[in-house]
UniProtKB/TrEMBL annotation:
Transmembrane segments: none annotated. In the C-terminal section; belongs to the IspF family. In the N-terminal section; belongs to the IspD/TarI cytidylyltransferase family. IspD subfamily. The record marks 160, 217 as: Positions MEP for the nucleophilic attack. The keyword Lyase applies. Bifunctional enzyme that catalyzes the formation of 4-diphosphocytidyl-2-C-methyl-D-erythritol from CTP and 2-C-methyl-D-erythritol 4-phosphate (MEP) (IspD), and catalyzes the conversion of 4-diphosphocytidyl-2-C-methyl-D-erythritol 2-phosphate (CDP-ME2P) to 2-C-methyl-D-erythritol 2,4-cyclodiphosphate (ME-CPP) with a corresponding release of cytidine 5-monophosphate (CMP) (IspF). Residues 1-236 are annotated as: 2-C-methyl-D-erythritol 4-phosphate cytidylyltransferase. It comes from Alsobacter soli. The chain holds residues 5 to 240 of 402 of the full protein. Its EC number is 2.7.7.60, 4.6.1.12. The record marks 15, 22 as: Transition state stabilizer. This is Bifunctional enzyme IspD/IspF. Pathway: Isoprenoid biosynthesis; isopentenyl diphosphate biosynthesis via DXP pathway; isopentenyl diphosphate from 1-deoxy-D-xylulose 5-phosphate: step 4/6; Isoprenoid biosynthesis; isopentenyl diphosphate biosynthesis via DXP pathway; isopentenyl diphosphate from 1-deoxy-D-xylulose 5-phosphate: step 2/6. One of its GO terms (molecular function) is 2-C-methyl-D-erythritol 4-phosphate cytidylyltransferase activity. Keywords: Isoprene biosynthesis, Lyase, Metal-binding, Multifunctional enzyme, Nucleotidyltransferase, Transferase. It catalyses: 4-CDP-2-C-methyl-D-erythritol 2-phosphate = 2-C-methyl-D-erythritol 2,4-cyclic diphosphate + CMP; 2-C-methyl-D-erythritol 4-phosphate + CTP + H(+) = 4-CDP-2-C-methyl-D-erythritol + diphosphate.
């Protein structure tokens, strides 16, 4: 397979409330986005890497490039501008990859806000997708999850043993995923929160492989404090 990596980094980080998009916030001295790129670039050393960025993030992105080793920075394609939703940002990235002289056969899509993806996790997901066409990492949920209505009344309680909290990177055969994104957008399905959901919507079977509880998405302010603390502990 010819892999490309798409890092979605066009969000505003509203819940983190940091005053700048969270992916540009340094954690232990290195920005979250640079950490994510370092992790993926090391795990898939042959892959080209594309970031989807916010329309006003050009200067921040340029500064982030200086955090990367030059040989890794050279593997980055010029960034593509993201869209109003994560789904739209991925779509823009996939369209951009499809216009390359040699489009990838497989794509690994990662949230910029997950800087702790290990090489073994990335490679496990990629290997599963190379075999099956679509794979995502998931971990068992520890809370009991309820489905609720707008008023907060519980509609149902799915059996916890059947639930997984899924993460990124998510990996797919390229052409079917691009086709699924185009069909979903054309059908007005515009706010699916991960790419597995787009593939599922289009009728594909997506395999969940073993995720990693350390591969958290930095979302709220306290997640940043925890990330700093983790990186300052000697054994991690
Ligand atoms: N993302 C994106 N384009 C969007 C929205 C989100 O590329 N229009 C990216 C984010 O940059 C992030 C990932 O998708 O890396 C996961 O989204 P999330 O954690 O929700 O990040 P934000 O949307 O930035 O945060 P919030 O929802 O709190 O505003
Ligand atoms: Mg969001």
């Amino acid at each position: 397979p010819v892999w490309a990596v798409l890092v979605v980094a066009a969000g505003r980080g509203e819940r983190a409330g940091l005053g700048l998009p969270k992916q540009y916030r340094p954690v232990a001295g290195i920005s979250v986005l640079a950490r994510s790129i370092l992790a993926l670039g090391e795990a898939l050393p042959e892959a080209q890497i594309l970031c989807a960025t916010g329309p006003e993030d050009g200067p921040r992105y340029a500064a982030m490039l200086d955090e990367l080793p030059p040989e890794l920075a050279r593997r980055l394609l010029p960034p593509v501008i993201g869209g109003p939703t994560r789904q739209a940002s991925v779509r823009n990235g996939l369209e951009s990859l499809s216009r390359l002289a040699t489009p990838p056969t497989h794509v690994l899509i990662h949230d910029a806000a997950r800087p702790f993806a290990s090489a073994s996790l990335v490679q496990r997901v990629a290997a599963a997708a190379a075999e099956t066409g679509a794979a995502v990492p998931g971990v068992p949920v520890v809370d009991t999850i309820k489905r609720v209505d707008a008023a907060g009344a519980i509609i149902e309680t799915p059996a916890r043993s059947e639930l997984r909290a899924v993460q990124t990177p998510q990996a797919f055969a390229f052409e079917p995923l691009l086709a699924a994104h185009r069909r979903a957008a054309d059908a007005g399905v515009a706010d699916l929160t991960d790419d597995a959901a787009v593939a599922e919507w289009a009728g594909s079977t997506v395999r969940v492989v073993e995720g990693d509880v350390r591969n958290v998405k930095l979302t709220r302010p306290e997640d940043f404090a925890e990330a700093e603390a983790r990186l300052s502990r000697p054994l991690e």
